[in-house]
Amino acid sequence: MKQQIQKNLNQPKEPSWRQYAKLTVGSESRRALLAHELVTGLLGGFPGALGLWMRRKCYPRLFASCGRGLIVGRNATLRGTGKIRIGKNVAMDENVVLDARGDEAEIVIGDGTLISRNTIIRSRNGKVVIGAGSDIGANCILATDSRLEVGNQVLVAAFSYLIAGGNHVIDDPTTPIIEQGFQSRGGIVIEDDVWLGSHAAVMDGVTIGSGAVIGAHSLVNKSLPGRCVAWGVPARKQRER
């Protein structure tokens, strides 16, 4: 079995524009595709305050829903916009990627959240939810093919890596791993008021309780309780706040 993204891009009986539309706007709507191409093509790289102002006015129309006060930096990549919901006063810095692929994909970003530059948020037939007032640092990857929930007022420092799902099946040694599909261990839940240090990696099946602090360069492969301070490879509770 090929990965789903490869299947979506290689349908010989389907017109190429329709395949592109599914990837880009999440539907087969020519109108939505045309609007997306015009808005992102003309305004995506437009510099300065004028570019920010024009994206604030025009980009909200691309999403399934979007509150007031959106800020989008230059060269953001948006895929599956019809499956993305944005709250009020959300800010996305330059080169952010929001990628919602598949019929069941959904990305929800809460009010007042900041997504810093070069960060990738990807849903592949899963759901990503980022709560209100959270701060996702630069060069992070948040991805799922099941469930990834980040609570309210969560700090995720730069270069952090949250991967909920995407665990390749390896049971059959006679079949290439890439063809064996995926399995999920239940996704990731980061509760409210958590701080993940720089370069932290959180693996599938993990819950981090409210108020926890995770040290830089930690590998979190097991759930951790609320209000703990933890670090290490793998991360272990060191003390309580």
List keywords for this structure.
16% helix, UDP N-Acetylglucosamine Acyltransferase, domain 1, 241 residues, 4 helices, alpha/beta
Task: Report on this structure.
- The protein is α/β, with parallel strands linked by helices and 241 residues long.
- The protein has one domain (4-240): UDP N-Acetylglucosamine Acyltransferase, domain 1.
- It is 16% helix and 31% strand.
- It contains four helices and 25 strands.
- It has helices at residues 4-8, 16-24, 30-43, 48-58, and strands spanning 65-66, 71-72, 77-79, 84-86, 91-92, 97-101, 106-109, 114-115, 120-124, 127-130, 135-136, 141-144, 147-150, 155-156, 161-164, 167-168, 182-183, 188-190, 195-196, 201-202, 207-208, 213-214, 219-220, 228-231, 236-240.
- β24 (228-231) and β25 (236-240) form a beta hairpin.
- The radius of gyration is 19 Å and the shape is globular.
Describe this structure in a few short sentences.
With 241 residues, the protein is α/β, with parallel strands linked by helices.
| Strand numbers in spatial order across the main sheet | 2-5-8-11-14-19-22-24-25
On the 0 to 100 scale, the average pLDDT is: 92
Q: In which range does the helix fraction lie?
A: 10-25%
Unreliable segments of 5+ consecutive residues = none
Helical stretch count?
Answer: 4
Please give the CATH class.
Answer: Mainly Beta
Cα gyration radius (Å): 19 Å
CATH-level-4 superfamily name? Hexapeptide repeat proteins
Give the H and E element order.
Answer: HHHHEEEEEEEEEEEEEEEEEEEEEEEEE
Report the CATH architecture.
3 Solenoid
